[in-house]
Design goal:
three-stranded mixed sheet, alpha/beta, 500 residues, Rossmann fold, five-stranded mixed sheet
């Protein structure tokens, strides 16, 4: 008797698409029995999407076993239905051709498909192409459906501070949160408070607001620039076709207040011509003497005086500004580095120490990156499963739109996190370490100032872990802040021994 293997898969763990694992197994067993085939094994993939074969380990195992372990025997690969095999035209045809080139046959029970048929490839192309086109149409229909909802003034789902979203995606005002939203708009439009001042007040004095979340500049800006609070629905990409439609939900602020907020935002969004050029390459390395947070750029009104300022003060209005003179701080760091990196004895040790530190630092970062990639794959699988369920008429279009919209928003957040990690890994890649070490030991300051802003920051982060600031009493009303210690990624005592 001829040999056969089976393959089974469902769209989700809930087996909602009409072809449960047990049903497929029964169909495969009955088919092989009726055709006189000896069924040696059924490869069960369990729950997952057939969009691609990348994450389908059981499928890949089956193809390998059939081809490698049956070089002198024809094997029939039996499926309950072709869409169990693939929903991707290129993948499906490639694997079917691969099986046939090694003398094996692909069979689909429901579709009446047999790759031994001379017209099988044409049928296969049509089937897979139809399935793939169906998916693309669904994606387009989902987006058009969401756009249509927005045009009708309906919410497309997600979380919005100030509102509760019902199961039917209707917005209901959250009375406690709405009070905070109104407070933010009142301070922004009536009292000319900036983002930081509002965030500081919410975090320190507005007890109810603090209990709901921690506020910063970004969260305040997000609220005062969102037309949803004035009763509108915003739809479309930011730089493409973003439009505003009259919503059917209850507004939290008046249209007049929204128009005033827009005018203030547009006026403050004007970017003046820079009076002073230059990067703040110590941003993130300097540590606030009070709270230990990183310090970031700051300039006085008009840009005449440049400083580093506590980031917690700048974004949330917490801590003190603790201004540090930019020019003096940068000069001290570069002078100290230049003097330390003159001896040729430093090269090997410095290079090795930097590489070791980078390697240690990259371990948790890479692990975090892998976890995000796994989350992305799981989200994509969920989206693929939804499409499989929709095409098998198991779930309605409205459910598909709602869930896909939510998952796509989550994917965008993950993408942003990945990009930030990729930038960090790139800056600290060991591939650049040798080049960096060779350059800095020759003429550090000349080399440093020849770099662009991003490269300057990246270079210092290869060598320096952090820079501590101390407050010095000068006898007057104002206290002076200056660099007290620079911590490196190499052991200072060892370097001093080598230098001596």
């Amino acid at each position: 008797m001829a040999k056969a293997v089976g393959y089974s898969r469902v769209s989700t763990g809930k087996q909602l698409d009409g072809f449960s694992i047990s049903t497929q197994h029964d169909m495969i067993q009955d088919f092989c029995k009726s055709k006189g085939l000896t069924l040696s094994k059924i490869y069960d993939e369990g729950a997952g999407s057939a969009k691609s074969i990348e994450n389908r380990d059981v499928f890949k195992e089956m193809i390998y076993d059939v081809i490698e372990n049956n070089k002198n025997q024809k094997v029939y690969v039996v499926l309950a239905k072709l869409d169990r095999f693939s929903r991707n035209t290129v993948d499906g045809i490639h694997v079917a051709d691969l099986l046939k080139s090694h003398g094996h046959c692909l069979v689909s029970i429901v579709d009446g498909f047999d790759s031994d048929n001379p017209y099988a490839k044409t049928l296969l192309i049509n089937k897979f192409a139809q399935s793939e086109q169906e998916r693309e149409n669904i994606v387009l229909n989902v987006r058009n459906g969401m756009k249509k909802r927005a045009q009708q003034g309906l919410f497309n789902g997600g979380k919005v501070f100030g509102y509760n979203s019902t199961l039917s995606k209707e917005l209901e005002v959250n009375k406690e949160q709405a009070k905070v939203v109104q407070f933010i708009f009142d301070r922004y439009t009536n009292d000319d408070w900036g983002y930081k001042k509002i965030a500081h007040f919410l975090n320190t004095q507005y007890t109810e607001a603090k209990a709901q979340r921690e506020w910063d500049v970004i969260s305040i800006k997000t609220i005062v620039t969102n037309p949803i609070y004035a009763g509108f629905i915003r739809w479309g990409e930011k730089n493409d076709e973003r439009k505003i439609y009259i919503g059917k939900h209850q507004a939290i602020i008046s249209n007049a207040q929204w128009e005033k907020a827009k005018q203030i935002f547009e006026a403050k969004s004007y970017q003046p011509i820079k009076i002073h050029k230059g990067s703040y390459f110590l941003s993130g390395l300097l540590r606030c003497p009070d709270c230990g947070s990183s310090m970031v750029q700051h300039k006085s009104k008009g840009g005449k005086y440049l400083y580093y300022q506590c980031s917690k003060n700048k974004t949330k209005g917490l801590c003190k500004s603790n201004l540090v003179n930019k020019e003096k701080a940068e000069a001290k760091v570069l002078n100290e580095l230049s003097s330390k990196l003159q001896s040729p004895d430093y090269e090997n040790l410095l290079s090795e120490k930097i590489k070791q530190q980078i390697k240690l630092e990259q371990i948790p970062v890479k692990k975090q990156y892998s976890m995000i990639e796994q989350e992305e794959r799981e989200l994509q699988n969920k989206i693929d499963e939804l499409f499989d369920l929709f095409t098998s008429h198991t779930i309605p279009k409205e459910t598909l739109q709602d869930q896909v919209s939510r998952y796509e928003n989550m994917k965008n957040e993950l993408k942003t996190r990945k990009e930030n990690i990729e930038a960090k890994l790139h800056l600290s890649s060991s591939q650049n370490t040798t080049f960096i070490v060779q350059q800095v030991l020759n003429n550090f300051e000349s080399f440093f100032y020849s770099l662009g802003d991003t490269e300057k920051k990246g270079l210092l982060r290869e060598i320096i872990s952090d820079i501590q600031i101390e407050e010095v009493d000068t006898g007057g009303k104002r206290k002076k802040r200056q660099i007290s210690e620079i911590h490196y990624y190499f052991d200072e005592n060892i370097l001093m021994e080598i230098a001596s």
